[in-house]
Fold:
Amino acid sequence: METPDWKNLSFGYVKTDYNIRCYYKDGKWSKPEVSTSEYIDVHMAATGLHYGQEAFEGLKAYMGKDGKIKLFRWEENAKRLISSAEGIKMAPVPVELFRDVIFQTVNMNKRFVPPYGSGATLYIRPLLYGSGAEVGVKPSSEYTFIVFVTPVGPYFKGGVKPVNMLICRDVDRAAPLGTGIFKVGGNYAASLRAQIAAKDRGYSTSIFLDAREKKYIDECGPANFFGIKENTYITPKSESILKSITNMSLLSLAEKIGMKTERRRVPVEELSSFSEAGACGTAAVISPIGKIFDPEKNITYEYCKDGNPGQFTMKLYNKLVGIQNGDETDEFGWMTEVA
Ligand SMILES: Cc1ncc(COP(=O)(O)O)c(C=O)c1O
Structure:
């Protein structure tokens, strides 16, 4: 059996040995079923296809120096999937079922967990969608929950590097009282026009503003935003952004290392007063921001002037990555061994 080339993995799909599926019907979840197929049989009238009844999660398994495989804060992903399911009227996946299925999927695909020190990890993708047939707009009475895994390379090959971002005013990924706080597929579809436009102009991603007033920072593509001012970690509070588990963790770590923290609305103009800025999420942990361009005001906000991420950004990054890899003490109890 071939093992992946750990050094050349990207953040993409690689086939693994097994995935696990559960079916919700007549008000209850089936027992998990193991599959070796990469395909699913979907009813052509499934609500997941027509009315966007679909939510997902993303978390990682890490191989420690001691050879133990551990997951980072999986309960938070379980809770967020429940919140997403409730947000679009799907049957929620109970925490214990979520746990059993992700642990079993990782265990069955152990040979795909990248070795300690490679910087690569095993990405876990839980997926929930309405699988029952409906033609009128209403919630399905049947759901499918699938978990697959795929090994992914380090987000930054050859060290953490600053990225540039473009402020977007002509696309909203989510409405103020819409589904932005849920991890549902529709939000990502809605963000694509802005993402492609930003990429076409040479930026790594777009920064969305609040949809109501276009005055405040919402999110950076599929990641939360933070700025550093003196000794303070500042991150937006908004009714239309996803509650990032990475961001929650960075807030705790910032306090732990003696920084102040603020979660509040962040006006666009405040970008000029930050000494450092970054985007945070499971994929990259932190993407330090080099420059942010505001096309309407023709202003460029610059951070990392010497080409390197700032000291607070790197301190937080190293601390969190250290905990995830098992090099730092897990003082918050965030890691769970996949026994
Ligand atoms: C829209 C959006 N915001 C933020 C995040 C970061 O969240 P997390 O840190 O839980 O990965 C993600 C990724 O999951 C996302 O898709």
